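Before relying on records like the one below, remember that each one covers exactly one chain. Contacts with other chains, cofactors or solvent are not represented anywhere in the record.
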Amino acid sequence: MVSFRRTCSLLDCGNSSMDFGGTNLKYNTVLAKRTMANVRIIIPTPLRQYAGNRDAVEVEAESVREALTDLVERHDQLRRHLFSEDGRLRNFVNVYVNEEDIRYLERDGTALKGGDTISIVPSIAGGSFSLMDRLAAKRKDVLSPSEIKRYSRHLILPEVGMTGQLKLKQSSALIIGAGGLGVPLTQYLSAAGVGRLGIVDFDVIDESNLQRQVLYSTKDVGRKKLEVAKERVAQINPNVDVQGYETRLTSENALDILKDYDVIIDGTDNFPTRYLVNDASVLLQKPNVYGSIFRFEGQASVFDARRGPCYRCLYSQPPPPGLVPSCAEGGVLGVLPGIVGSIQAIETLKLLLGKEDTLIGRLLVFDALKMKFRELKLRKNPECPICGSNPTIKELIDYEEFCGLRGPSEQVGQELQITVDALKERLDQRHEVILLDVREPMEWEIAHLDRAVLMPVGEVPGRVNELNTADEIVVYCKTGVRSARITNFLRELGFRKVKNLVGGIDEWAEKVEPEMPRY
């Protein structure tokens, strides 16, 4: 390691020399004119108690060495945590300038320029302490001895403490959806001691859920998610009151369900419910903790129309049906919901604790493939139809209609549809039918219909010349949504014998070929 020293000891610098006219009188050395840069030093959470509970300190320095010297001279208690007795940076402390590790630059001699950010990254001991305490504390104004032991790692945080933990115990949060995002939310918020958790879900556990929804196990397949989630919460923390709503969230019931909770958490996987949750939260003046996932990318934010933008300020209109595939169609990395859901859980706890520095007005974008986080600034739209200066939406609307989702029968005309039974009959009778599979190659590898032609949705416009307008064509995807869009597209181009397979290959596997793999 390189010693953190200037012309004197880093830990014992005093007025041992003076500069007059660029000459050091003690060492008789000509010094270059100093160019000081204004830089920001980020103080990590474990060390903030030794820096006056500050999360950042502004200093002027030419190099990392001088910046850290200035820091420990201002906050002497930091010295022993950063430096050994001989003035060297401790082995368990890394220092970054912006995003670069100084070990791969000029170490402590790395030059600084105005606006640079220095990050101190000490190693942090992990681990957890779990006490499966079955004694439920009924009082909301005190913590029982068992709760004090359970939440001890919270209680020694200056930002939480006894007061903060009592706030959590007295608070409530509603999780919309017990799927990929809802699972880590349920686990961490119950473990954290949020007094009352509401969960809205009407789905049952499917084998395809187990790759990412780690609250459930193989033996739970076929059971109701809400039922299993309530059992797991009781095992994690019996002090938490769980209220389940085994129903689809609709314009008719949303306000009644959401009104009794402090924070609303969006763990949905479809656009109609997402806009419904946003609008209901705005009308009820409640914060909405947003999260979404797709393939390797996730997003998170906090929407609160009282203090910043809402979801409609970010996306005023939903995409056309079928344009953006769902996780069931496009896939998702199993770990990703755990990361994004955990971020939502953190933001929820901060809101319940009354912390100001939340994701309100900021969109956090996570790319798991590149392992990169980006932060984008969000602004309130003064023309937003629900939270703008002159709102036009003053009550909940029909969100299925708003998002253009009314089932295959309304996406394409009845005359342009064919059921799996009807298709099987035509194939059995050896009719000449072109089967056009518009799914992605990865889906094709799992299963496809015999003699089908693979032409993914994005390739159809460029390959349409491969099709004959005189042929009878049946378009299919996984469930019939993407294929409906392509059916309409081909119809507009003059294909008069094109039809959409209702229910897609999934319904074909269920009703016609039960041995076919389903995903």
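The chain has three domains: 19-122, 146-402, 408-511.
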